[in-house]
Write a structure and sequence with these properties.
The protein has 107 residues and is mostly helical. The protein is 51% helix and 0% strand. It has four helices and no strands. Helix 2 packs across helix 3.
């Protein structure tokens, strides 16, 4: 269900006054803050890094933030797809994986 919409000023006032603002929040997009992080190293070709940098600059974020946003979005979309299909069996999962583009993971 979509949350109700109000102005930012009204939202701030309600929050500051201790009123219930939960009906104005989209809980489906809520994220846990300060979750433990695990470092992952990924090597990209130089041209991909340049493209990432340009995309990040257009959005006013760092390269790392852009990559995180894109990965989270993709994982959320995949979770929705998986949950809306009622789950899939191993054969379907293999077929889906085979149809997805492959990345060269050679170092």
């Amino acid at each position: 269900m979509k949350p109700k919409t109000i102005s930012a000023e009204e939202f701030d006032r309600m929050f500051d006054d201790g009123e219930d603002i939960s009906e104005y929040l989209d809980w489906s997009t809520a994220r846990r803050l300060h979750a433990p992080a695990k470092r992952v190293n990924v090597d990209f070709p130089a041209d991909i890094v340049s493209k990432l940098d340009r995309a990040a600059k257009r959005r006013g974020v760092s390269r790392q933030a852009l990559i995180k946003m894109w990965i989270v979005t993709q994982l959320d979309n995949e979770a929705l797809l998986y949950s809306s299909s009622g789950g899939t069996d191993a054969a379907e999962t293999t077929e889906q994986a085979d149809s997805e583009p492959k990345l060269d993971n050679a170092a």
